[in-house]
Write a structure and sequence with these properties.
alpha+beta; Alpha-D-Glucose-1,6-Bisphosphate, Chain A, domain 4; 2 domains; six-stranded antiparallel sheet; 27% helix; ASHA1/2-like_C
Length: 288
């Protein structure tokens, strides 16, 4: 079986990219928390999928290093399978502030004895998420903001108000009065999030689970309601996500909003989102 090979270009220097993939204090921001990682040949490091543990032990041994350019290590799951694979991280400087990372993962077929969880397609999906989303956000300084509110109303009511065309305009008013959307809500659907002037964002719905979760994959800017090609600024944040999670509580519903945000807009979001969710809460509870 051919090795998994994925390549991504980032608008950062090769040095910054190298530090991100080899320094434990940086790795834990986008990858895994690895307490015993040392960048030296023969070093063995282990980790689980979460900082506090997990179901899958990962065991790796560094085989070779070319400082600033490449390092290679084994990749094992000794508690689940006898297989061994090899992972290579290769960095190429394209320009002073542009670099390419190529990841090669060979031998995932050796994990067949571990069962379907270790299928090659799962590794492909996982590496795409890690490199194309998590690492990218870290390198570009995109932070994750979380807002929560408890609402004394059933999930169905909260969902209806979140995505009803008239109610959406009301609860989103702290961001901009008259905000609205065009498009249908459903898995994979394209939605335009608009201001009264026709500017805004276009997005695809990445996850749609009615009354439970909606995740927008934000793609680019709108001008006069028309989708604009990516420019240097939007290249930084395209692919960012904005998610809404609804869960049952004894008193009604807990709404959790999680979004990727450029740090320079942090103050704006930290002011507008609580105000918007308060309006939504009052609407759902019949107090508005």
């Amino acid at each position: 079986m051919e090795a998994i090979t994925l390549s991504y270009i980032y608008q950062v220097s090769a040095d910054k990219l190298w530090n991100a993939i080899t320094r434990p204090d940086e790795m834990k921001q986008w990858y895994f928390t690895i307490h015993d990682f040392e960048l030296q040949e023969g070093s063995v490091f282990t980790f689980y999928e979460t900082e506090t543990g997990g179901a899958f032990l990962h065991r790796c041994m560094i085989r070779s290093i070319i400082s600033g350019q490449k390092f290679e290590h084994t990749w094992e799951h000794p508690s689940h399978t006898k297989g061994i694979s090899v992972l290579s991280w290769d960095i190429e400087a394209i320009s002073e502030n542009t670099s390419r990372l190529t990841l090669t993962h060979a031998g995932t077929e050796n994990f067949a004895d571990g069962g379907p969880e270790f299928a090659t397609e799962n590794y492909i999906a996982g590496w795409k998420e890690i490199l194309g989303y998590s690492l990218r956000n870290y390198l570009y300084g995109i932070e994750k903001l979380i807002f929560e509110t408890d609402i004394a109303a059933p999930k169905e009511r909260v969902w209806e108000l979140l995505w009803g065309k008239e109610s959406y305009q009301e609860w989103t008013s702290p961001f901009m009065a008259g905000s609205y959307f065009e498009g249908e809500f459903g898995q994979g659907k394209r939605v335009h999030l608009l201001s009264p002037t026709g500017e805004g964002l276009y997005s695809d719905i990445l996850i749609y689970a009615e009354n439970e979760q909606l995740t927008f994959n934000l793609l680019g800017n709108l001008k006069n309601k028309e989708e604009q090609p990516l420019d240097a600024e939007s290249e930084i944040w395209t692919g960012s996500r904005e998610s809404y999670f609804l869960t049952d509580t004894p008193a009604g519903t807990r709404l959790r909003v999680q979004l990727d945000n450029q740090k320079e807009y942090g103050d704006q979001m930290n002011k507008a989102f609580p105000a918007a969710l308060q309006i939504l809460k009052e609407m759902a509870e019949g107090r508005r």
